Amino acid sequence: MPTEGVTLVNDVLGLRSEKGIAVLPSLWSGTAPAAGATRTVVPMADILDRQLDVARRWGRTRAAAFGRCPVG
Is the pLDDT of residue 1 over 50? Predict the structure, then answer.
């Protein structure tokens, strides 16, 4: 297992449930390789707000913002 993966796992294990890790630039942005990204511990509310904002800009509903798809 690469050292970076172990470091990330240890970082995540050290967080309380109300915190998360924000990665900038976003992994899906295509603007920088993952090695050039920065990780910052932030409140989960900030991460979820950002996810909802991006989903709205892409025309997705709140349910679809978190990967759920309508049934039927």
Answer: no
Q: Does 24 have pLDDT greater than 70?
A: yes
From the list 2, 3, 4, the residue with the least C-alpha distance to 35 is 4
CB 27 within 8 A of CB 33: no
For residue 25, say if its preceding peptide bond is cis, omega within 30 degrees of 0. Answer: yes
Check: pTM over 0.70? Answer yes or no: no
> In angstroms, rounded to a whole number, what is the distance separating the alpha carbons of residues 3 and 5?
5
Place of tokens 């890790």: 21
